[in-house]
Structures are given as C-alpha cells and as structure tokens.
Design brief:
The chain is 70% helix and 0% strand. With 142 residues, it is mainly α. It has one domain. Helix 1 runs antiparallel to helix 2, helix 1 packs parallel to helix 3 and helix 2 runs antiparallel to helix 3.
Length: 142
C-alpha cells in the first residue's frame, strides 16, 4: 500500500506570509457566516421586538446574497490550497479585494434598508476597514 499524500496539499510549500494570508482570508469568510447568522437573528428582534419600522424582506434578500457570495468566496479561498507557491499572494490579495468591495456594498445596502445614516450600525464601516487592514497589506487595504 502506498501512503503518499495526494499532491493537492501544497500548503507545506508556502512561505509563512502566504500561509498567513490564506489563513486570514479563511477566517474572514468564517466570520462572515457569523455575521449572516447575526443578521438573521437581529432582524426579527429589531422589527418585532423593538418595533423598529423597516422592511425585513430586503434585509433577508441581502442576507441571502451575502450567503451566496460567501459560499463562492469560500470556494475561492479553498482553491488557494492547490495553487503553486509564489502565485498565492497575488490571487489571495485579489480575493481579499473582492471581499472588501462586496462587503462594503452589502453593508451600504443593509444600512439603506434599515434606517440609513441614523442606524447605529453605521460604525460597521470602521470595523470592516479594520478587518481589511488586518487581512491585506497596508497599501492594498488603503
């Protein structure tokens, strides 16, 4: 019997920088699942429990779109495991930029449908900017 691991596991060949970048992207994708769950739980609590008037259907549709693109981003991030060393950083930074743009659009849409600038969650832009600064190199995050 041959106990050789399949060649699709290239992660051991990566530099520490490449491994760290892929790990941060995976963490970001996993955090997004928690955000989706939080939106699903907070929407009925805010609209029914606290009687805050906003249409919940656009919020749920936006949440479903976030879940869909997060699934695609998860697959993209997992595909980095099979990339050759050296090509990972460029692709991972591109995936990170895609995540930043999609998240900023999603935050803007959610804030629009839940009260606009009066919504206290407008500070999520700051959280998102901080996460982007952690995931990507400083020049790219800027």
């Amino acid at each position: 019997m041959n106990n050789v691991l399949p060649r699709k596991q290239h992660m051991t060949e990566y530099t520490p920088e490449e491994r760290a970048l892929v790990l941060r992207l995976r963490v970001w994708v996993n955090l997004r699942w928690l955000v989706i769950l939080g939106i699903i739980v907070a929407t009925p609590v805010a609209s029914q429990g606290f009687d805050i008037g906003f249409s919940t259907i656009p919020v749920y549709v936006t949440c479903a779109i976030i879940a869909l693109y997060n699934l695609l981003l998860f697959r993209q991030t997992e595909s980095l495991k099979t990339e050759k060393a050296g090509a990972v950083i460029k692709k991972a930074e591109t995936y990170g930029n895609i995540q930043i743009i999609l998240d900023l659009v999603a935050i803007t849409v959610l804030l629009h449908f839940t009260g606009g600038i009066e919504n206290p969650f407008v500070f999520f832009y700051l959280v998102h900017t901080t996460v982007a600064g952690i995931v990507l190199p400083k020049r790219r995050a800027y």
